[in-house]
Amino acid sequence: MPVILFLLWMLLNGRITAEIVLFGFAVTALAVWFMHKTMGYTFRTDLRLFRNAGILSRYTAVLVREIVKASLLVMKESFSPSGKPDPVIVEFHSGLKSRFANELLANTITLTPGTYTVFQKDDRFIVHCLKREYADGMDDFVFIKILSGLR
Fold first, then answer.
1. pLDDT for residue 134
2. Would you say residue 78 has pLDDT above 80?
3. Dist CA 78 CA 63 (whole Å)
4. How far is CA 125 from CA 41, 105, 109, 138, in A?
5. Which band of pLDDT confidence, cut at 50, 70 and 90, is reported for residue 93?
6. According to the model, what pLDDT value does residue 69 have?
7. CA end-to-end span of the chain, whole Å?
8. Which of 32, 63, 97, 119 is paired with 103 by a 20 to 30 Å CA distance?
9. H or E segment and range at residue 25
């Protein structure tokens, strides 16, 4: 992460001078220190992200696809004269072990139009769905399968 932050700093500056490089090192060090103190960042976090880069790339591609599909469904329901919401609240357990995977799943559900994570603790989720059909198979969600591969 520090290397990426420094390279981003250099890229955004557009030129290389001694002052920009030294100030970039200082800003990067300050940002890494801040992330360590406030967000619990460690170099192990970077290693874990690199180890899971393939899974997270697949997750991102599927997330974009699912957001587009869900957006089209919600838009169709919104513009349909007979499209009446049939909201439902469902509870399920994801079975995911890591805190990161469960929080990522909670955010994924909220990002996907038509669903919203009301409550999440450990692997227990309470989700509001705009239509009853959106709740079908929530505990067998495609993202749970992807995120279960995180190490």
1. 87
2. yes
3. 22
4. 26, 9, 10, 10
5. very high
6. 94
7. 19
8. 32
9. helix 18-39
Q: Which residues pair with 33 in a beta bridge?
A: none
- Cα separation, 68 vs 127, in Å, equals 20
Query: pTM value?
Result: 0.74
**Structural domain boundaries of the chain?**
2-46, 53-147
pLDDT of residue 82: 82
One-character DSSP codes across 80-99? -TT-----EEEEEE----SH
User: Between β-strands 88-93 and 115-121, what pairing exists: parallel, antiparallel or unpaired?
Assistant: unpaired
What's the CA gap between 94 and 142, in Å, rounded? 11
Range 95-104 contact pairs with CB under 8 angstroms and sequence separation of 24 or more: 95/123, 95/144, 95/148, 96/123, 96/144, 96/147, 96/148, 97/123, 98/150, 100/150, 101/147, 101/148, 101/150, 104/59, 104/147
Residue 98: both structure tokens together: 């890591």
Q: Packing angle between helix 2-13 and helix 18-39, nearest 10 degrees?
A: 140
The residue whose two tokens read 């995977």 is: 101
